[in-house]
Structures are given as structure tokens and as C-alpha cells.
Amino acid sequence: MMNDNVERTMLVFDSAYTYEMMIERKVDILATGRELSGYFSHIWSVHPVASLFKAKNLLQRYGKPDLYMLSKRQSLIEGKIGRYYHLRFFAVLNFLISQLSLFFYLIKLFGKNKISIVRAEDPYYNGILAFIFAKLFRLPLMIGVWGNPANIRQQTKKPLMPRLFRWIWVEEIIECFILRKADLVLVQNEDNRSFVLQKGVPFHKTWIFRISNVLHESHWTPPIDRSDGTKDLLEFNINANNKILCISRLEKLKHIDHIILVVKYLKDKGRNVVALLVGDGSYQKDLQLLTNQLGLSNQIIFCGNRDQEWISRVVPKVNLVLSPLTGRALGEAALGGVPVVAYDVDWHSEIVKTDVTGILVPYLDYRKMGDAVELLLSNPELSDKLGKNMRNFALKLLNPDDANQTQIEAYERFLKSNQK
Fold it and tell me: How far apart, in whole angstroms, are the C-alpha atoms of residue 313 and residue 311?
């Protein structure tokens, strides 16, 4: 049992979303979910380079760190890519000055507040910053690994952070160092844990934190009780009978091009389907080019980024969801009550059970994925059964109360062991 009189605070380095992104897409729960229903009295989340996503000619790209309030218990600090606008042509120098400004900002934060834990959501730049502050103030260090970097690098032949690390071997050295220095490494599933163990982290220093408590509330509503997503689809003139959906960042490592290849494969077999791609990313132009080259401009719909309520309305309106490589989005799809066809990679096999909740196919075999799609489209009764099974299974596997309790248990043990 937790003592509600105990003040627990945490500093988290996380560069996944800016404040603007979280509000626009209604994913602020990714940060506020860490509060664990009041377990933490306050959390400061830090995005070291939030203005990286702004145009280079905008003044907002430069300056001092910004502070936003996500909730009464949650503050978001956003660092800038450069300190001074007039130094924008000296990018490296300006970046270093900006990060030094953020460093002293956080030093003052530590001076005014008693921080209990330092945490980073990756073992790279965020991990380096977290390691420095944990050592400087003699605090326990948590590092998150929300994927399998080894698999990703094997596919892309590039570092995960090419702007920071020019070579894979340099990235791997930093990765190993930070992970081994962590007092606890957080992972999303057993596949991610396997990667961490291979890096030399002892099993007892790992803990699974599932995505359950960072899923938007709209996904927990039964599909039948959700607002009708038909109007959302009509916005794109979609009224086809066979609709498939993929929710993902449009990056090369996500293999979204395989969705397009599946549609082409099915078209060549005489079955036309419409695929909705929800998300954006640096690979979008390449995907659009491939779509045009294959003559599928009327069958591949680029929906762009959509907020969580939009996604929760649309998922029940499609026949099935395809998952080449997805994390949180797979949980959102599963709760939508539709079957999922997924590659056997990462955590997919933990929730996609062939002939029970969907169909799992060999990794990167888009033809097998296409065959599975055709099977489900040809058997609506089977598809309906798998979809209902999927939601019921997801409600158990991704129970947010269980996730909160598991995470509280991890923090309790973690804090006690570091007080000895």
C-alpha cells in the first residue's frame, strides 16, 4: 500500500511529443498517465529540443526554455534548438548555448524542488541528460526502452538517432553504457526486455510497463457506444465496403510501404480494398510516389495525423487493421473491436493470436499478410468473431488499473532499494 503522505516527484526526459502535438492530437495522457492516479505529487517532463519541429525562420525556434502545465501535477519544460535567432546560421554553437541554458534552468529547478527520481524515455540523448543529472544530484536513474533498437537498426542499417550518432557502433556504445548505469530499465514487453538483457542489464533491473494507462479514454468506450465515424470517412470520400486501416508514423522503419504492396497484391488477385494510413512522417512522399507508381491513388488514403477521438470513431468502421510494426496504436486498434493482421515482430504476438484475435504472419512477408486480409474479408462471420475476441482479450491484457498497480509496485521497490 502506498503512503499518500509521502511526497514523490520525478524528472522525465522525453522527446516524443511537444506540448503543441500533445494538445492537438489529444495524447497528453502519455505524460499525465505517469502520475499513476496521484502516486506522484509532481512530475516535470523535459523535451530538450522541442522547437526542432518548427520552421527555421520562426522566432519560436529560438530562446529560453518554455514551461507549460499539463495538469496540476504535471509540468512540461521545452528546450529550444537554438538560443539566439541571430546565431541561427551557426547551428552547432547555437544548439550548445541553448542546451547549456536548459542545463542551468534545470539546475535551478533542482534547487527549488526535491526530486525523487530521474527518468529518461530512451538511452540516447535523453538518457545522457538523465544520467548527468542523476549523478550530479545522486538520484536513482530509470531508463525506458520502448522498442527493439537492434531489429530496427538491422532493417534500416542506420543509427536510431543519425543526427546525434553518425555510426551505429557509436550509438551502441552509448546505449550499452546508459543501460548498464541505470538502476532500473523500463520496457514495454518481453521482446524489448530480451534486447535489454542482451545489452548486459540484469533481469532484476528490468520491469515491464505496459501502455495500458496511456491510452486515451475514448478507446475504452465499447465500439457500439462510440460516436459514428461514417462522417469522418466521408471527409475522404470513402464509402467502399472493404476498408483496412493502419495507424503509424510514416517512417521507413515502420514498413508502411508493405500496406501499399498488400493493396496491390490483392488488386492483382481481383479484390479491391481501400487502405487508410493515419499518421505522418519523413517517408510520406516516398509512400505517395509508390502509390502513384502502382496506380493505387484511389485506394490508398493518406489521412494525416488525427486525434484520438477521431481514431476511436473510425476503427470500428473498418473491416480490419494492419500492423507491420506498431506499439500504442496496436492497443488502440485492439480496443476498437476489429481483427488485426500483424507481422510476428516486437510485442505483436502478445495480443494478436492467430484464429483467436486476428492473424499473425511471418515478418516482412506482405503476401502472407495479403492472404490473411483476403481470408478475413471473405469470412465476415470469422472476422466479427475475431474482432470481439480481440477487444475482450485487450481489456484483460491492457487493464489500466493493473498497469497502474504494477508500476506503483515497481516504484515502491525501486525507491526502497535506493534508500538503503
Answer: 5
Is the confidence at residue 203, as pLDDT, over 90?
yes
> Would you say residue 177 lies in a domain?
yes
CB 2 within 8 A of CB 283: no
Element (H, E) at 368: helix 366-378
Query: Are 209 and 188 spatial neighbours (Cβ–Cβ below 8 Å)?
Result: yes
**Local structure of 7: helix, strand or coil:** coil
Q: Supply the range of the domain harboring residue 164.
A: 9-215+399-417
Domain total of the chain? 2
Q: Which residue has the cell 481501400?
A: 274
Radius of gyration of the chain (CA): 22
The helix or strand, by DSSP H or E, that contains position 152, with its residue range, turns out to be helix 149-156
pTM above 0.85, yes or no: yes
The string of pLDDT tens digits covering residues 107-138 is 999 999 999 999 999 999 999 999 999 999 99
Q: How many CB atoms lie within 10 A of CB 235?
A: 9
